[in-house]
Specification:
Belongs to the Vsr family. By secondary structure, this protein is an alpha+beta fold. It contains 4 helices and 4 strands, in the order H-E-E-E-H-H-E-H. The protein has one domain: VSR Endonuclease (Endonuclease, Chain A), CATH 3.40.960. The protein has a 4-stranded mixed beta sheet with strand order 1-2-3-4. A hairpin with a 4-residue loop joins strand 2 and strand 3 (about 50-55).
C-alpha cells in the first residue's frame, strides 16, 4: 500500500493540466474548510468548489470495484468506510455552501475537466 500514490496521480495531473489550459486557477491538496480534516485534490476557493479524484479500488467504484480474496472482511469494511467518509465530506461541504465534484480515476480527463469548468464558471459568476 505504501507504493500507492496519494497525490499527483496520472488522472489528477491530466485533469489539472486541462483546467489550467482552460484558464482556471486553483489550489491543490488543501482543506476546503479548516474544520474539515480532509483535503480536496483541487480547490477553487472563490467559487467554493472542491474536486476529489477517487481511485476505483479505494472508494468502491460501481463499475470497477473489486475486493481481494484474502482478508476480505477487512477490505470490505475499509472500502465501505471510505465511501461513508466520502458521503460525509460531501454533506459537510454542501452544508457550508460548497459544491463537491467526484471524479473516478477511470474517467477521461477532458470530460471531467469540462464538468469542473462548467460548475466553476456557473458558481463564480464569470462567463
Amino acid at each position: 500500500m505504501q507504493r500507492q500514490r496519494r497525490r499527483d496521480t496520472a488522472i489528477e495531473l491530466a485533469l489539472r493540466s486541462q483546467l489550467h489550459a482552460a484558464g482556471l486557477r486553483y489550489r491543490i491538496h488543501q482543506r476546503p474548510l479548516p474544520a474539515l480534516r480532509r483535503e480536496a485534490d483541487i480547490v477553487f476557493r472563490r467559487a467554493k468548489v472542491a474536486v476529489f479524484v477517487d481511485g476505483c479500488f479505494w472508494h468502491g467504484c460501481p463499475i470497477h470495484a473489486t475486493t481481494p480474496k484474502r482478508n476480505n472482511d477487512f477490505w470490505v469494511a475499509k472500502i465501505e468506510g471510505n465511501a461513508a467518509r466520502d458521503r460525509a465530506t460531501d454533506q459537510a461541504l454542501h452544508d457550508a455552501g460548497w459544491q463537491s465534484i467526484r471524479v473516478w480515476e477511470h474517467e477521461a480527463a477532458d470530460e471531467a475537466a469540462a464538468t469542473v469548468r462548467r460548475v466553476v464558471k456557473s458558481r463564480s459568476g464569470r462567463g
